[in-house]
Specification:
Helix content: 25-40%
CATH superfamily of the largest domain: Type I PLP-dependent aspartate aminotransferase-like (Major domain)
Largest sheet: 7 strands, mixed
CATH architecture of the largest domain: 3-Layer(aba) Sandwich
Distance between the termini: 37 Å
Low-confidence stretches: 87-96, 99-105, 282-289
Number of strands: 17
Bound molecules: 4'-deoxy-4'-aminopyridoxal-5'-phosphate
Shape: globular
Number of domains: 2
Oligomer: single chain
Structural class: alpha/beta
Radius of gyration: 22 Å
CATH class of the largest domain: Alpha Beta
Length: about 475
């Protein structure tokens, strides 16, 4: 905070595409998509037009006891994209033959709107808690999360989080959630791959010990007579933990364990949603969208899908928590039973946000956007390879259009920088001098460009990172 007070901040006044402009007229590339929110670039004409159109009708009216047009259309669209199968068959769950009842129940057909990623998680948490109690699964529902988990800054979301630096101070305020080992192959004690082969990228050589730990945790909790109500995960890649990808197959295995113990799976796709993790090369695909959600890349359908950040293309704060008919049903009753879900924010179902979100989906499914995403993912992958030559680059992790570069004292020893050395921060400051804005997570520098980023702009982002690492951490012997 003291550092912040001593410096003149970069004051952003406008933006276009992947470019931000500050009050001095300096231009920067938005290399973390304005903290992971922006999808299609700033001032996108289609998003702006949708917002203007909506403004001629109404900006906002309460959704408490009322409905509105854009939010209703958005709910239908979310159900469509979150259920690839539903979309293809155009079935509603009511039409399904009884033999498919299980599948039907797992379709995400109910949508609850809120304001941001944290509230999307609060909603899932409260619904899962009450669902477990009302269905008799548990009288004191417990939750399991991953080591390094980050699910937002409100108290419920923080209770699910396991990053000491952010969360420990509030321990007295929180309810207790259990944590289990998360895959972090680069620093995994079970990974027998030789450290020298880190840049071979195929570094998982283990017996899925991290999955066994999840299995054991579930088994022990079930044995205690109070099976977990739900497990919450960021699918495919943990963001705030340091951009840590899960090896292929991890999510599927973990989802099977969750199912086997009759717990629910909460997928936090606040960061990973809306194509951020790429189109994926396996798992079910919708015909026109590719795979928009990380879960679907592993063929996993969660019981709760939490969305925010990119929902409106990054224009306005809005979130959605999708869930199943089964969960919805637990909140139906006679008036005097008061079974309703007592949770509603003032700006729930905001019309402006919903109008932007609908326009964002149109852009997302356009062939031009799909092509641009595929190309950008490839260019980023190619460009990032050049960083392996730097002695301070320990690991380069990329899933789709998310990349994290872990800086270390020496790539051979993988020794971490002490946080006080501010290695990540100083590198990001040196990048800003070169016209590229991003934020580090400790010593991990994040590159997460908007989908409209051109190949030349992506190259500039990686070049700035390379030069900044050289400048800040020294030009020592290369590999
Ligand atoms: N979940 C994840 C995975 C996130 O990355 C974040 C924000 N970085 C959140 C939840 C919280 O979202 P918000 O900041 O919109 O509350």
């Amino acid at each position: 905070m003291r550092d912040w007070l001593q410096r003149e901040p970069i004051v952003i006044v406008s933006g276009r595409g992947a470019v931000l402009r500050d009050a001095h007229g300096r231009e920067y590339l938005d290399a973390n998509s304005s903290i992971w929110t922006n999808l299609h670039g700033h001032r996108h004409p289609k998003l702006n037009a949708a917002l203007r159109r909506q403004l001629t009708k109404i900006a906002h009216s309460s959704a408490l006891g009322l409905a509105n047009e854009p939010a209703s259309l958005l709910a239908a669209e979310l159900v469509r994209v979150a259920n690839p199968e539903l979309y293809v068959s155009r079935f509603t769950f009511h039409d399904r033959p009884s033999g498919e009842a299980e599948d039907v129940k797992r379709n995400l057909v109910r949508v609850f709107f809120s304001d941001d990623g944290s509230t999307a998680l609060e909603v899932a948490l409260k619904l899962a808690y009450e669902f477990a109690r009302r269905t008799g699964r548990s009288r004191a529902p417990k939750f399991l999360a991953l080591d390094g988990a980050y699910h937002g800054d409100t108290v419920g979301a923080v209770s699910l989080g396991h990053i000491d630096l952010f969360h420990k101070a509030y321990a007295g305020l929180l309810f207790k959630s259990d944590k289990v080992m998360a895959p972090y192959c680069y620093r995994c004690p079970f990974n027998r791959a030789s450290p020298e082969r880190a840049d071979a990228r195929d570094y998982r050589q283990c017996n899925w010990e991290c999955v066994s730990k999840v299995e054991r945790k579930f088994a022990a909790q079930t044995k205690r007579g109070n099976a977990y109500a739900a497990m919450v995960v960021e699918p495919l890649i943990q963001g705030a933990a340091g951009m840590i990808p899960q090896p292929r197959g991890w999510l599927q295995r973990v989802a099977e364990i969750v199912r086997a113990h009759r717990a629910q799976l909460i997928a936090d796709e606040v960061m990973t949603g809306f194509g951020r993790t790429g189109a994926g090369d396996h798992g079910p695909r919708t015909t026109d969208h590719g795979t928009l959600f990380a879960c679907h890349q592993e063929g996993v359908q969660p019981d709760f899908l939490c969305l925010a950040k990119g929902l409106t293309g990054g224009t306005l704060p809005m979130a959605a928590t999708l869930t199943t008919e089964e969960v919805f049903g637990a909140f139906l009753g006679e008036y005097e039973e008061f079974k309703t879900f007592f949770h509603g924010h003032s700006f729930t179902g905001n019309q402006l946000g919903a109008a932007a979100a609908l326009a964002s989906f149109e852009i997302l499914r356009s062939p031009a956007s799909i092509l641009a995403r595929t190309r950008l993912e490839r260019v980023l992958r190619e460009e990032l390879k050049s960083l392996w030559a730097l002695p301070n680059v320990g690991d380069i992790r990329q899933v789709g259009l998310v990349a994290g570069v872990e800086l270390v004292k020496d790539w051979r020893t993988r020794e971490r920088f002490d946080l006080r050395e501010r290695a990540g921060l100083r590198v990001c400051e040196a990048m800003a001098k070169r016209g590229v804005l991003t934020r580090p997570i400790g010593s991990v520098v994040v590159l997460m460009p908007p989908y409209c980023t051109t190949s030349a702009q992506a190259r500039r982002m990686v070049n700035a990172l390379r030069e900044a690492v050289d400048e800040v951490l020294g030009r020592r012997a290369r590999r």
